[in-house]
Amino acid sequence: MPDTHMPAGIDQEPFSRADGARVGPNAVIQTAEALEALEGEGATAVIFGAAGLAHYLASPPASMVAESEAARLHHAVFAHLPPDRARAASAEAGRRTGDYILAHRLPGPVQHILKLLPPKLSAKILMKAIEKHAWTFAGSGQMTGRAGAPCVIEIANNPLATPDCPWHSAVFERLFQELVTPRARVTSTACCHRGDPVCRFVITLDGRRAS
Ligand SMILES: [Zn+2]
Fold it and tell me: Residue 188 Cα, ligand 1 centroid: separation in angstroms?
């Protein structure tokens, strides 16, 4: 259900492809929130400044952002923080993006039905919804999804790839845990950032992580 009063996000159609691929503004907004919560305002300003995006701290983006901007920001997090803290901040940004999607982009009745269905069925429906809105997290990357045991999401040429993609993993885990089963676990098993042809996210529904 489109909501014109909210910042652009999962329900909006792709546009402005001619001037470069775009991703949802939450890739920027929730990164600012997560960094401020975990690393403080000073570190957040340094990281946004390094990415050339200091203006977004004063005035958060209200619509889609260039994927190159989101990519610079996600890389700057890893360039400026020790690896474990970069992973934590990136994952927190992903969880907050999942929270935003749950609060604003998925109608309550749909969420209610998904929670009532057996996990295998709700996983299938959620996977279709994620595929339909893939451009919001994948930009110019090509996403494919397979529901099953386990569910698998792949993004080829992922423009927002960081080491093992904690942001994407956390977005998917938040959605699957809330709408399919609290036992859902997402594991990155391949990553464009280390030269693999795709980022692969394996989603198990039984509480055990994929190896
Ligand atoms: Zn990746």
Answer: 7
How far apart are the CA of 210 and the centre of ligand 1, in A?
Answer: 16
Q: How far is the CA of 207 from the centre of ligand 1 (A)?
A: 22
Taking the C-alpha atoms of residue 117 and residue 66, their distance in angstroms, rounded to an integer, is 37
Q: What is the DSSP letter of 106?
A: S
Location of structure tokens 């600012």: 32
Domain positions in the chain: 17-204
CA of 63 to the centre of ligand 1 (A): 25
What are residue 201's DSSP bridge partners? 153, 188
Residue 211 neighbours by CB under 8 Å, 6+ apart: 187
Distance 116 CA to ligand 1 centre (A): 32
Query: Ligand 1 centre from 109 Cα, in Å?
Result: 32
CATH number for the domain running over 17-204? 3.90.1520.10
Distance 144 CA to ligand 1 centre (A): 14
pLDDT in tens, the chain (211 residues): 333 333 333 344 444 444 589 999 999 999 999 999 999 999 999 999 999 999 999 999 999 999 999 999 999 999 999 999 999 999 999 999 999 999 988 888 989 999 999 999 999 999 999 998 888 889 999 999 999 989 999 999 999 999 999 999 999 999 999 999 999 999 999 999 999 999 999 999 999 988 8
